[in-house]
Amino acid sequence: MEQEMCYNAREDESCLCAVEYVQRLALESGAVQSAKRDSGDNKVSNHHQLEWTLGETWFHNMRMLGYIWEYVYASFLRYWLKWAARQVTGSCELQRICTGFQPGATRTSKAEYSLQFSKNKITGYASLYTCVEDLRKETFSSDNMGHEDMLLKLWKLLMPAVKLESRVTKQWGDIGFQGDDPKTDFRGMGMLGLTNLVFFSEHYTEEARQVLSHANHPKLGYSYAIVGINLTEMAYSLLKSGDLKPHFYNTVTEHPELHHFHHLYCYLAYEFDKFWVASKPQSIMEFNHYREKFHSHVKVSLQQPGVALKLTGFSQH
Amino acid sequence: MGLLSILRKLKSTPDQEVRILLLGLDNGGKTTLLKQLASEDISHITPTQGFNIKSVQSQGFKLNVWDIGGQRKIRPYWRNYFENTDVLIYVIDSADRKRFEETGQELAELLDEEKLNGVPVLIFANKQDLLTAAPASEIAEGLNLHTIRDRVWQIQACSALTAEGIQEGMNWVCKSVNAKKK
């Protein structure tokens, strides 16, 4: 435990990214400039307003300085201060917190702060879940050009030789959607489901097309996109329950990101297809039975300490 | 041993099992309804590939509810689940007016099935939470429900999302099973 804590503290680095700070700064200075412009245009500006504007400007400047300080502290100073303290005291930040404070709110809050600002795998897993959850909650909307483009991209990647005759067409059934408009098929998985489908087709194009050809088999076939959305649900629930922790701790050196989750989905999509074909099911009506079986296989392999679920297809990635 | 068998006898007779078949077009809300009946979370629903089954205790019955996927490709398999059905629940998306004709045709075909002869049918006019939803009376008229003479039937407005109207529908299901068994 002690070792683990020291490791976390050594890995400590700022989580707050520079881009966010620059954006905030730009917003702030933009607000100041518009305030100045307003007062300039208004030649008969009364005394009070000028005072107010000046006050605002001063306030904004102070806030900006605050942000700069926060950024410098979080990204550089804190790291070096901690390093210096470690050299002097010979113990890591968490050890110093534990020896310096009595058990209680202060000690716990300080430990919480220390861990939150550590860019480590443990807090990384939680923030990955937040990202995944945000994407899941984003519902597919035909008014969103980005969403529509992704859908058309999915078609082009999977069916490069066939032209989509119109946006609403029975052709969607050829890649395994239920009706003539895929928008109602994403349901509780939202944009997470579509993003996974597109990611698989884009990064493992050969494999995805092979899986699609199996799915379109007249006897052993299944609905490619619908099964894909069901497998997104499987990946999501494995992430939510914490079952994926060993996999990410083993395969990702820094904190896990969204694309790591998409890669895991690709593994499930590819492996489920192999499992389904090898099982020779009677009909598509047995899908949930084999889905459950596959789910337990995956859970068993996730319990191995050295687990690393990687898609081994025909091309190098 | 002796005590155990006495205790077993004291336990009230096991719940009567009822087989309920849940059918309707895709995206009608069958799985959401099933999850509502079982008091499960409805926020992670995915399209049904194949079927789902759940057992729910209600009013002294053990309801075995079969939720079969509604996608056109799967509809030919519906008939494999007709046998021994006690009640048919047919779910309609009341806001999907473009497919009223299609859903009416599917229902008419079901009512013509020999294996479903005389089976009580409950029609859930689902998605009443949507502003564009047609009222149950309009759907009943469009589907010519009043021409059904060979069985008891009922149409119930509901929202599987908010659970409104579901209890009323299930009360009717239990009532019609009781009437049939007597």
Automatic annotation (TrEMBL), chain A:
Residues 146-302 form the ELMO domain. Pfam families: ELMO_CED12. GO terms for cellular component: membrane. One of its GO terms (molecular function) is GTPase activator activity. This is ELMO domain-containing protein.
From TrEMBL, chain B:
SUPFAM superfamilies: P-loop containing nucleoside triphosphate hydrolases. Keywords: Golgi apparatus, GTP-binding, Lipoprotein, Magnesium, Metal-binding, Myristate, Nucleotide-binding, Protein transport, Transport. GTP binds at G24, L25, D26, N27, G28, G29, K30, T31, G70, N126, K127, Q128, D129. One of its GO terms (cellular component) is centrosome. GO terms for biological process: protein transport. The keyword ATP-binding does not apply. It holds the Pfam family Arf. Mg(2+) binds at T31, T48. It comes from the Eukaryota. Its main location: cytoplasm. GO terms for molecular function: GTP binding; GTPase activity; metal ion binding. CDD domains: Arl3 (cd04155). It is found in: Cytoplasm, Cytoskeleton, Microtubule organizing center, Centrosome; Golgi apparatus membrane. InterPro entries: ARL2/3, P-loop_NTPase, Small_GTP-bd, Small_GTPase_ARF/SAR. It is a peripheral membrane protein. Belongs to the small GTPase superfamily. Arf family. PANTHER family: ADP-RIBOSYLATION FACTOR-LIKE PROTEIN 2-RELATED. This is ADP-ribosylation factor-like protein 3.
